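To make this tangible, this section ends with a sequence with its structure tokens:
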Amino acid sequence: MRQRPGQLAERLQKKGLEPIYLLHGEEPLQLIESADLIRTTARKQDYSERRVLSPDGLDWAGLRADLEGNSLFASRRLIELRMGERKPGPTGGKVLTAIAEHPPPDTILIISFGELPPATRKSKWFTLLAKAAIEVQAKNIAASAFPKWLEERAKGHRLRLSRDALELLSERTEGNLPAASQELQILSLFSDGKEELDAVQLEEIITDSGHYNVFDLIESAYRGQAARALRMLEGIRIEIAEPMAVFGALAWDLRRVCALSADHAQGGNLTALCRKHRIWGSRVEAVKLFLERNPSPKPEQLLQEAIQVEKTLKGAIRDDPWRTLTWLIMHLAGRAHTYPTTIHQLQPDHP
């Protein structure tokens, strides 16, 4: 049964947990929060064993045998299969089909993908899995609906934003849900929730010299301003301490730049393509500088490196999340060859 991300909490409350959850889509924040919601519910219901699997080196036959057997460590278990942008292939497809036909006992299985092409969603394994599972598809929110999403999200942070404040925040974040979520978290630190914030107050908070936001971080990296980007990352780490919020915004924006780069490689006008991909203002110059340093297919290669960072953030690879984020930002800024252990080891940005 298909559910919108916003419907999942109500379904979990009314129906409880179900054996299989199939998460996929192009919008990372909704995927992350849907998985978090399932995990939290499972934890409260004594699903004490949890494992996270990635497609790299995955033994599909071993996974099937494991799911068909009993857990050695707990009576209830939660298993997450994080496929990302990868497809299961013929062997994996057969295993997923078998799982759909015979869900494992005493097990909650979360299978997550990024955006899947229509042909994949019509395949046998996906069709059967979607029918057996609670399917959550995270779509990008339409520009016309984005201010309404911001308004509802702000209420969750006990924020009251005026209409002009919502419009300003919508323009700044350009449909990027992770960046918008991070901005709302910051705003909630400066508001008591009693007074409505207007656009002037919002701008003052956002541009406060002691505050850094993800959009400024991304723009600085695109411009090759590595030292400035790392200072911003440190500010965000202190303020929010949530690396996935930073990564979600970075990955979303990098996918958009990859699409722009591919169009540009086919001979499209770069300025016109920026409008097509909803890149405005000072960010147009930043993206142009980035693409001058990284002509196609380099942006796509950087996106693949970002996927490796995501595995660290989700626990599939053991490493410090903030260190790997620093590494990614240095790559985006074109300074990977001078990757520092700390920000103090990095030479100032060139004028």
In short: The beta strands are 2-3, 20-25, 49-53, 77-84, 107-113, 134-138. Residues 2-138 form a domain with the Rossmann fold fold (CATH 3.40.50.300). Residues 339-351 have pLDDT under 50 and may be disordered.
